[in-house]
Design brief:
mainly alpha
Length: 363
């Protein structure tokens, strides 16, 4: 009976507030990573894993939204979904990309770096940079951080129709599990005889995100009462979230296999969503982490530009100073953008929101 009540409470929850706090934990390591002059060894070099946590959150939350709309309205409106996502993602993305393009055309000197960026613009504009941009060049890749946004957009494009067209959880779960296995096999080199070890085919297959797949599978499991009972037993105690966070930190420090790290990330996402009064609620739901998470999309798009400006103004500044300036500057820009540029688009997007009582959309 307690599992039935917990599942009903989970389904009725209008917002998973702690996910904004997890987004804060995701974005800060990424900002740190881009503030360092090179890839550092040990724990200080693990900043890119913040993007993986973003992926786990996105896979879980988007799938949850789709499943709730389907179960409560009888169908998923793909038109409304894509309108909402477009109005949330595209305005700021293309504004920032346009500013990068103007800088490239007008300010960057003739160089391989400039030629590479201008040649890559069509891929950035079509969210295919993670497939076709050459990251193996000897100079920095301008706007290269957008690979993760391309991965997200490809997920948004391909996954909702699967959920919308299938009734029940079995076919969507089989589809997502197949993508996960395909990615794992490619990353492990098991498909080298079929697709080679480099080139577009490898780039496309390995751009599949294991955390997105695992997050989506968890959402499918928590949506169904019987499987919810299992995961509520594993992740539904108050101490589950702190244990998951400590375990994740230990795995990162130990340089554990990515599969173990990704699994622990998804367990953390589940632990903070199954129940509201989890053991990390007082930290993740606090005002500052929650706000940073809320504007994390803008922080992600602005932080590299802030770091570039800080390096130009303070060429002798070390990574800690750059990190502090990047955090302050990108939060300030993200705040201005969110309030005065993004909000009009978000108000329009709200008109297309399904009335499902579902969780807050992913950033």
């Amino acid at each position: 009976m307690s599992a039935v009540i917990a599942h009903a409470a989970f389904q009725a929850r209008a917002r998973f507030q702690s996910l904004d706090g997890l987004r804060c934990l995701s974005i800060l390591p990424v900002v740190w990573h881009h503030s360092t002059p090179r890839q550092l060894d040990g724990l200080l070099g693990k900043g890119p894993l913040g993007v993986h946590l973003f992926f786990a959150i996105s896979g879980f939350l988007i799938t949850t939204l789709l499943l709730r709309e389907q179960s409560r309205q009888g169908e998923v409106s793909l038109r409304k979904f894509y309108v909402r996502r477009s109005l949330r993602i595209f305005p700021l993305y293309y504004l920032v990309l346009g500013l990068y393009a103007l800088r490239g055309w007008l300010l960057l000197p003739d160089s391989p770096l400039r030629d590479h960026f201008l040649g890559s613009l069509p891929y950035y504009a079509t969210y295919t940079g993670n497939w076709f941009v050459d990251y193996g060049v000897p100079h920095p890749v301008v706007f290269g951080f957008s690979w993760s946004l391309a991965t997200e957009e490809q997920f948004y494009l391909l996954w909702p129709p699967v959920v919308a067209l299938c009734r029940g959880w079995k076919l969507p779960a089989a589809y997502m599990a197949s993508l996960f296995c395909l990615d794992f096999a490619a990353e492990s080199g098991w498909l080298a005889s079929l697709i080679g070890r480099e080139g577009a085919a490898v780039q496309i297959v390995t751009s599949l995100s294991a955390p997105i797949c695992l997050g989506s599978l968890l959402a499918l499991a928590l949506h169904e009462p019987r499987s919810f009972r299992v995961f509520a037993w594993l992740l539904g105690a108050r101490f589950s979230a702190p244990v998951a966070l400590v375990s994740l930190a230990a795995l990162v420090v130990a340089d554990a296999p990515l599969l173990a790290i990704h699994s622990c990330m998804v367990a953390l996402v589940g632990a903070v969503c199954i129940r509201e009064d989890h053991g990390l609620a007082h930290v993740l739901d606090a005002r500052i982490p929650g706000y940073i998470g809320e504007v994390s999309y803008g922080i992600y798009l602005f932080h590299v530009s802030v770091i570039t400006a800080a390096k130009w103004l303070l060429p002798a500044a070390g990574a800690p100073v750059l990190f502090a300036l990047a955090c302050a500057g990108s939060v300030a820009l993200a705040t201005l953008s969110y309030r005065y540029y993004e909000q009009p688009f978000l108000r329009i997007a709200a008109r297309f929101r399904a009335v499902t009582g579902s969780a807050k959309p992913a950033s």
